[in-house]
């Protein structure tokens, strides 16, 4: 599917606010609400739009901090880890990466004891390194057209 300029305008609106009505998007991009609806459906069918979500503030629901944890998997432990990581409630994002580490995870934790317990669960799979997140510099940035 070709993502033309109008589709990018629609995507920009949805990335700003996924709950924006088709009528409001239409007003902003200069087409009718049914035209917006049809284009959104095509973008969903082409898996360009992969879903809609709500962002919850971990701090406001009781988590004290966020951390990034990298894992260098031991020989033969990467595949078991890739299955196990899906069961950890603490993990909000997990990426398989290139380089010295195999995995980087973004996790939310209640306190230092929770961090220690969580790391204890990970060390059977490999060596870990932890960085505590102090603040977001860029948060949920939109995907923009290629130049």
From TrEMBL:
Residues covered by the HTH asnC-type domain: 3-64
The protein, known as: Lrp/AsnC family transcriptional regulator
The keyword Transcription appears for this protein: yes
TM helices/strands, residue ranges: none
Domain of life assignment: Bacteria
One matching Pfam family: HTH_AsnC-type
Keywords, sorted A to Z: DNA-binding, Transcription, Transcription regulation
Higher taxonomy: Bacteria, Pseudomonadati, Bacteroidota, Flavobacteriia, Flavobacteriales
């Amino acid at each position: 599917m070709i993502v033309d300029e109008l589709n990018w305008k629609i995507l920009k609106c949805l990335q700003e606010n996924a709950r924006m009505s088709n009528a409001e998007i239409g007003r902003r991009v200069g087409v009718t609400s049914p035209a917006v609806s049809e284009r959104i459906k095509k973008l969903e069918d082409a898996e360009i739009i992969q879903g809609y979500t709500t962002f919850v503030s971990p701090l406001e629901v009781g988590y004290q901090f966020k951390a990034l944890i990298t894992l260098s998997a031991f020989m033969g432990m990467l595949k078991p880890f890739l299955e196990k990581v899906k069961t950890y409630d603490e993990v909000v994002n997990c990426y398989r990466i290139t380089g010295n580490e195999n995995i980087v995870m973004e996790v939310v934790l209640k306190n230092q004891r929770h961090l220690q317990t969580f790391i204890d669960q990970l060390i059977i799979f490999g060596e870990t390194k932890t960085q505590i997140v102090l603040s977001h510099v860029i948060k949920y940035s939109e995907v923009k057209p290629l130049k």
